[in-house]
Amino acid sequence: MRIGELGKQSGTLVETIRYYEQVGLMPAPPRTQAGYREYRPEHLQRLIFLRRCRELGFSIEEIRSLLRLAEQRNQSCATVTRAATQHLNDIRGKLADLRQLAQGLQTMIDSCTGGRIADCKILEALTRVSASPAVSRRGNSTRRRGTQ
After folding, report:
1. Pair (107, 62) in one structural domain
2. Cβ(77)–Cβ(58) below 8 Å
């Protein structure tokens, strides 16, 4: 199948498929005599795996590690379980950070008196230099990377 069909069947943008090929997560497909990529069912399976990993928030490097582990079919899955557990713990930490952010923002909203912008307690709180509840305990944003 061609890249457009692969994208349609997997629900993945063509640009994302090409990106996965560039970073080595998708094996390069053979080409037809006309130079078109010709994807096989194993490419679709790999792409579904990649999409599911990304939906679960795994980073490109974490996915790369999972793919390496998947090649060791006779090994214990304990390593995969550890990787998934670590990722789950990371998610739980981010959820705690988000709850803290929500609490801080709610405190700012609750401080609003509905007066003039010049007296806005929310804007005042946002301009303070003191430690802000909007900064996660890890010292960075709670959003994950911007990769595809």
Report:
1. no
2. no
Give percent of the chain with pLDDT exceeding 90: 68
Amino acid making up residue 45: Q
The residue whose two tokens read 């053979």 is: 30
Tell whether the model's pLDDT for residue 148 goes beyond 50.
no
More confident residue, 69 or 136: 69
Calculated CA dihedral for residues 114, 117, 122, 123, nearest 10 degrees: 180
CB 7 within 8 A of CB 13: yes
- Does residue 144 belong to any structural domain of this protein? no
The per-residue DSSP string of 29-93 comes to PPB-TTS-B---HHHHHHHHHHHHHHHTT--HHHHHHHHHHHT-TTS-THHHHHHHHHHHHHHHH
pLDDT of residue 130: 64
Domain extent at residue 63 = 3-70
Using one digit for the tens of pLDDT, what is the confidence trace for 22-67?
A: 999 999 999 999 998 899 999 999 999 999 999 999 999 999 999 9
CB 130 within 8 A of CB 136: no
> Which of 55, 4, 57, 54 lies closest to 25 in space, CA to CA?
54
